[in-house]
Amino acid sequence: METIVLGFDGSPSSMVALDWVAERAAAGPRRVEVVMIGGTLLQDDFGRDAGLIEAERRLRDRAPDAEVDAHRFTGRMPDALLERARGADLLVIGSHRGRPLWSAVAAWMPLRVASRTRTALAVIPDDWPERWTTNAGGVVVGVDDDDSSLAAVDFAAAEAAAAGVRLTLVHTWAMPVPQMEGSVALLASPIETRATHRRVIRDAITRARAAHPDLLTEQIIEQTSPATALLRASRAANLLVLGTHHRTLFTGAVLGSTGQDVLSQAHVPVCVVPSARTDSV
Protein backbone atom coordinates (compact mmCIF):
# COMPACT_ATOMS: atom_id res chain seq x y z
CA MET A 1 0.00 0.00 0.00
CA GLU A 2 1.39 3.38 -1.02
CA THR A 3 1.88 5.89 1.79
CA ILE A 4 1.45 9.57 0.92
CA VAL A 5 2.34 12.51 3.15
CA LEU A 6 0.58 15.74 2.21
CA GLY A 7 2.10 19.01 3.41
CA PHE A 8 -0.97 21.13 4.17
CA ASP A 9 -1.44 24.72 5.38
CA GLY A 10 -5.03 25.46 4.41
CA SER A 11 -4.05 27.74 1.51
CA PRO A 12 -5.65 27.46 -1.95
CA SER A 13 -2.45 25.87 -3.23
CA SER A 14 -2.50 23.16 -0.58
CA MET A 15 -6.18 22.50 -1.32
CA VAL A 16 -5.27 21.83 -4.96
CA ALA A 17 -2.56 19.45 -3.75
CA LEU A 18 -5.12 17.77 -1.50
CA ASP A 19 -7.47 17.22 -4.44
CA TRP A 20 -4.60 15.74 -6.46
CA VAL A 21 -3.85 13.33 -3.61
CA ALA A 22 -7.55 12.46 -3.33
CA GLU A 23 -7.69 11.50 -7.01
CA ARG A 24 -4.62 9.34 -6.58
CA ALA A 25 -5.94 7.71 -3.42
CA ALA A 26 -9.27 6.94 -5.07
CA ALA A 27 -7.50 4.91 -7.77
CA GLY A 28 -6.18 2.26 -5.39
CA PRO A 29 -5.32 1.41 -1.78
CA ARG A 30 -3.40 4.28 -0.20
CA ARG A 31 -2.58 5.58 3.24
CA VAL A 32 -2.63 9.37 3.42
CA GLU A 33 -1.23 11.48 6.24
CA VAL A 34 -2.15 15.16 6.13
CA VAL A 35 0.53 17.11 7.97
CA MET A 36 0.41 20.73 9.11
CA ILE A 37 3.66 22.12 10.52
CA GLY A 38 3.67 25.13 12.82
CA GLY A 39 2.54 26.47 16.16
CA THR A 40 4.42 26.75 19.44
CA LEU A 41 6.10 24.35 21.79
CA LEU A 42 3.04 24.57 24.04
CA GLN A 43 0.80 23.21 21.33
CA ASP A 44 -0.30 19.59 21.39
CA ASP A 45 1.62 17.80 18.64
CA PHE A 46 -1.53 15.91 17.76
CA GLY A 47 -3.84 18.88 17.97
CA ARG A 48 -6.12 19.38 14.98
CA ASP A 49 -7.91 22.52 13.89
CA ALA A 50 -10.90 23.08 11.66
CA GLY A 51 -8.74 23.20 8.54
CA LEU A 52 -7.26 19.78 9.17
CA ILE A 53 -10.64 18.32 10.04
CA GLU A 54 -12.05 19.66 6.78
CA ALA A 55 -9.05 18.30 4.84
CA GLU A 56 -9.53 14.86 6.34
CA ARG A 57 -13.27 14.93 5.58
CA ARG A 58 -12.62 15.98 1.99
CA LEU A 59 -10.15 13.17 1.47
CA ARG A 60 -12.49 10.57 2.98
CA ASP A 61 -15.35 11.76 0.80
CA ARG A 62 -13.32 11.51 -2.40
CA ALA A 63 -11.30 8.41 -1.51
CA PRO A 64 -13.50 6.40 0.87
CA ASP A 65 -11.25 3.35 0.80
CA ALA A 66 -8.10 5.25 1.75
CA GLU A 67 -6.64 5.27 5.25
CA VAL A 68 -6.55 8.94 6.24
CA ASP A 69 -4.99 10.70 9.23
CA ALA A 70 -4.52 14.44 9.77
CA HIS A 71 -2.25 15.99 12.40
CA ARG A 72 -0.53 19.21 13.31
CA PHE A 73 3.09 19.04 14.42
CA THR A 74 5.36 21.61 15.99
CA GLY A 75 8.68 22.06 14.22
CA ARG A 76 10.77 24.06 11.80
CA MET A 77 10.26 23.94 8.07
CA PRO A 78 11.28 22.15 5.98
CA ASP A 79 12.94 19.77 8.46
CA ALA A 80 9.77 18.81 10.32
CA LEU A 81 7.87 18.03 7.13
CA LEU A 82 10.76 16.05 5.65
CA GLU A 83 11.06 14.08 8.88
CA ARG A 84 7.35 13.20 8.77
CA ALA A 85 7.80 12.05 5.16
CA ARG A 86 10.74 9.79 5.94
CA GLY A 87 9.75 6.26 5.03
CA ALA A 88 6.74 7.36 2.97
CA ASP A 89 6.42 6.59 -0.73
CA LEU A 90 5.48 10.12 -1.76
CA LEU A 91 5.52 13.63 -0.28
CA VAL A 92 3.10 16.12 -1.84
CA ILE A 93 3.03 19.92 -1.57
CA GLY A 94 1.28 22.70 -3.46
CA SER A 95 2.91 25.66 -5.19
CA HIS A 96 1.79 29.09 -6.31
CA ARG A 97 3.02 29.62 -9.87
CA GLY A 98 2.19 33.29 -9.63
CA ARG A 99 4.85 33.56 -6.90
CA PRO A 100 7.49 31.09 -8.13
CA LEU A 101 9.91 31.73 -5.27
CA TRP A 102 7.41 30.70 -2.63
CA SER A 103 5.84 27.41 -1.67
CA ALA A 104 2.31 27.01 -0.35
CA VAL A 105 3.80 25.07 2.55
CA ALA A 106 4.91 27.57 5.21
CA ALA A 107 6.34 29.92 2.54
CA TRP A 108 9.27 27.70 1.59
CA MET A 109 10.63 27.24 -1.90
CA PRO A 110 9.63 23.92 -3.45
CA LEU A 111 13.16 23.71 -4.79
CA ARG A 112 14.58 23.83 -1.28
CA VAL A 113 12.35 20.95 -0.21
CA ALA A 114 13.25 19.07 -3.41
CA SER A 115 16.97 19.50 -2.84
CA ARG A 116 16.77 17.93 0.62
CA THR A 117 14.09 15.27 0.37
CA ARG A 118 14.95 11.58 0.43
CA THR A 119 11.34 10.82 -0.51
CA ALA A 120 9.83 11.26 -3.96
CA LEU A 121 8.27 14.75 -3.94
CA ALA A 122 5.26 15.85 -6.01
CA VAL A 123 4.80 19.61 -6.42
CA ILE A 124 1.29 20.52 -7.59
CA PRO A 125 0.80 23.96 -9.25
CA ASP A 126 -2.28 25.79 -8.02
CA ASP A 127 -3.69 26.24 -11.52
CA TRP A 128 -3.54 22.51 -12.32
CA PRO A 129 -7.33 21.89 -12.10
CA GLU A 130 -7.85 24.41 -14.90
CA ARG A 131 -5.75 22.19 -17.18
CA TRP A 132 -6.67 18.79 -15.77
CA THR A 133 -8.72 16.88 -18.33
CA THR A 134 -7.95 13.15 -18.71
CA ASN A 135 -5.08 10.76 -18.16
CA ALA A 136 -4.36 10.76 -21.90
CA GLY A 137 -1.57 13.27 -21.51
CA GLY A 138 0.89 10.70 -20.23
CA VAL A 139 4.06 10.97 -18.17
CA VAL A 140 7.28 12.80 -19.11
CA VAL A 141 10.65 12.03 -17.51
CA GLY A 142 14.04 13.68 -17.85
CA VAL A 143 16.93 11.30 -18.59
CA ASP A 144 20.44 12.26 -17.53
CA ASP A 145 23.68 10.82 -18.90
CA ASP A 146 24.72 9.25 -15.60
CA ASP A 147 22.82 7.10 -13.09
CA SER A 148 21.20 10.03 -11.25
CA SER A 149 17.98 9.67 -13.25
CA LEU A 150 17.57 5.89 -12.96
CA ALA A 151 15.21 6.17 -10.00
CA ALA A 152 13.24 8.85 -11.84
CA VAL A 153 12.90 6.62 -14.91
CA ASP A 154 11.73 3.72 -12.73
CA PHE A 155 9.20 5.94 -10.96
CA ALA A 156 7.90 7.49 -14.18
CA ALA A 157 7.59 4.11 -15.90
CA ALA A 158 5.59 2.72 -12.98
CA GLU A 159 3.31 5.76 -13.02
CA ALA A 160 2.69 5.50 -16.76
CA ALA A 161 2.12 1.76 -16.63
CA ALA A 162 -0.34 2.05 -13.74
CA ALA A 163 -2.33 4.74 -15.59
CA GLY A 164 -2.09 2.98 -18.94
CA VAL A 165 -0.58 6.02 -20.64
CA ARG A 166 2.49 6.76 -22.72
CA LEU A 167 5.89 7.46 -21.16
CA THR A 168 7.92 10.17 -22.91
CA LEU A 169 11.65 10.13 -22.15
CA VAL A 170 13.48 13.42 -22.69
CA HIS A 171 17.24 13.77 -23.00
CA THR A 172 19.21 16.88 -23.92
CA TRP A 173 22.81 17.36 -24.90
CA ALA A 174 25.35 19.99 -25.85
CA MET A 175 28.55 19.83 -27.86
CA PRO A 176 31.57 19.66 -25.54
CA VAL A 177 33.83 22.71 -25.44
CA PRO A 178 37.51 22.03 -26.31
CA GLN A 179 39.78 22.30 -23.30
CA MET A 180 42.96 22.97 -25.30
CA GLU A 181 43.87 25.80 -27.63
CA GLY A 182 45.59 25.78 -30.98
CA SER A 183 46.09 22.98 -33.45
CA VAL A 184 46.07 20.26 -30.79
CA ALA A 185 42.52 21.02 -29.78
CA LEU A 186 40.29 18.15 -30.84
CA LEU A 187 36.67 18.90 -31.61
CA ALA A 188 34.17 16.15 -30.94
CA SER A 189 32.20 14.97 -33.93
CA PRO A 190 28.53 16.07 -33.77
CA ILE A 191 27.55 12.72 -35.23
CA GLU A 192 29.49 10.78 -32.60
CA THR A 193 28.22 12.99 -29.82
CA ARG A 194 24.63 12.58 -30.90
CA ALA A 195 25.09 8.80 -31.20
CA THR A 196 26.43 8.67 -27.65
CA HIS A 197 23.42 10.50 -26.31
CA ARG A 198 21.03 8.34 -28.32
CA ARG A 199 22.49 5.35 -26.50
CA VAL A 200 21.72 7.04 -23.17
CA ILE A 201 18.03 7.40 -23.94
CA ARG A 202 17.88 3.98 -25.63
CA ASP A 203 19.23 2.39 -22.45
CA ALA A 204 16.60 4.23 -20.39
CA ILE A 205 13.82 2.97 -22.66
CA THR A 206 15.17 -0.59 -22.40
CA ARG A 207 15.15 -0.28 -18.61
CA ALA A 208 11.57 1.01 -18.54
CA ARG A 209 10.27 -1.68 -20.89
CA ALA A 210 12.08 -4.44 -18.99
CA ALA A 211 10.04 -3.56 -15.91
CA HIS A 212 6.82 -2.89 -17.87
CA PRO A 213 6.79 -4.84 -21.15
CA ASP A 214 3.49 -3.38 -22.38
CA LEU A 215 4.51 0.22 -21.72
CA LEU A 216 4.12 2.65 -24.62
CA THR A 217 7.17 4.90 -24.93
CA GLU A 218 8.49 7.70 -27.07
CA GLN A 219 11.78 9.57 -26.96
CA ILE A 220 12.80 13.18 -27.38
CA ILE A 221 16.46 14.04 -27.76
CA GLU A 222 17.42 17.67 -28.35
CA GLN A 223 20.46 19.89 -28.38
CA THR A 224 19.05 22.41 -25.94
CA SER A 225 18.72 23.10 -22.21
CA PRO A 226 16.99 20.48 -20.02
CA ALA A 227 14.38 22.93 -18.75
CA THR A 228 13.43 24.07 -22.25
CA ALA A 229 12.95 20.52 -23.52
CA LEU A 230 11.11 19.30 -20.43
CA LEU A 231 8.71 22.22 -20.29
CA ARG A 232 7.93 21.86 -23.98
CA ALA A 233 7.39 18.10 -23.76
CA SER A 234 5.16 18.35 -20.68
CA ARG A 235 2.67 20.88 -22.03
CA ALA A 236 0.04 18.18 -22.59
CA ALA A 237 1.26 15.75 -19.92
CA ASN A 238 -0.27 14.85 -16.58
CA LEU A 239 3.04 14.41 -14.75
CA LEU A 240 6.63 15.55 -15.22
CA VAL A 241 9.34 13.58 -13.42
CA LEU A 242 12.86 14.79 -12.60
CA GLY A 243 15.80 13.00 -11.03
CA THR A 244 18.03 14.59 -8.43
CA HIS A 245 20.87 13.79 -6.07
CA HIS A 246 20.31 16.60 -3.57
CA ARG A 247 22.77 19.19 -4.82
CA THR A 248 21.80 19.18 -8.46
CA LEU A 249 18.87 18.62 -10.76
CA PHE A 250 20.71 16.92 -13.61
CA THR A 251 24.49 16.72 -13.65
CA GLY A 252 26.25 20.05 -13.89
CA ALA A 253 23.22 22.19 -13.02
CA VAL A 254 23.73 24.40 -9.99
CA LEU A 255 21.00 24.19 -7.39
CA GLY A 256 18.00 26.06 -8.73
CA SER A 257 18.99 26.20 -12.40
CA THR A 258 16.96 23.47 -14.09
CA GLY A 259 14.86 22.82 -11.00
CA GLN A 260 13.89 26.45 -10.47
CA ASP A 261 12.88 26.87 -14.10
CA VAL A 262 10.84 23.68 -14.19
CA LEU A 263 9.18 24.03 -10.79
CA SER A 264 8.26 27.66 -11.36
CA GLN A 265 7.06 27.33 -14.95
CA ALA A 266 5.56 23.85 -15.33
CA HIS A 267 1.80 23.80 -15.77
CA VAL A 268 1.59 20.19 -14.59
CA PRO A 269 2.50 18.36 -11.38
CA VAL A 270 6.25 17.85 -11.10
CA CYS A 271 7.66 14.87 -9.24
CA VAL A 272 11.27 15.06 -8.04
CA VAL A 273 12.73 11.62 -7.38
CA PRO A 274 16.00 11.35 -5.42
CA SER A 275 18.54 8.92 -6.80
CA ALA A 276 19.36 5.80 -4.83
CA ARG A 277 22.69 7.41 -3.92
CA THR A 278 20.96 9.86 -1.57
CA ASP A 279 20.39 7.03 0.87
CA SER A 280 24.08 7.07 1.63
CA VAL A 281 24.55 10.87 1.62
Kindly list the characteristics that best describe this protein:
281 residues; alpha/beta; Rossmann fold; ten-stranded mixed β-sheet; 9 helices; 10 strands; 35% helix
Describe the structure in your own words.
- The protein has 281 residues and is an alpha/beta fold.
- It has helices at 12-26, 50-62, 79-85, 110-116, 128-131, 150-163, 190-211, 226-233, 258-265, and strands at residues 2-7, 30-37, 67-73, 90-95, 121-125, 139-142, 167-172, 217-222, 239-244, 270-274.
- The protein has two domains: 2-130, Rossmann fold; 135-280, Rossmann fold.
- The protein contains nine helices and ten strands.
- A ten-stranded mixed β-sheet has the order 3-2-1-4-5-10-9-6-7-8, sandwiched between helices.
- The longest helix is centred in the last third of the chain and has 22 residues, at 190-211.
- The chain is globular, with a radius of gyration of 20 Å.
Write a brief caption for the model.
Helix content is 35%, strand content 21%. The protein has helices at 12-26, 50-62, 79-85, 110-116, 128-131, 150-163, 190-211, 226-233, 258-265, and strands at 2-7, 30-37, 67-73, 90-95, 121-125, 139-142, 167-172, 217-222, 239-244, 270-274.
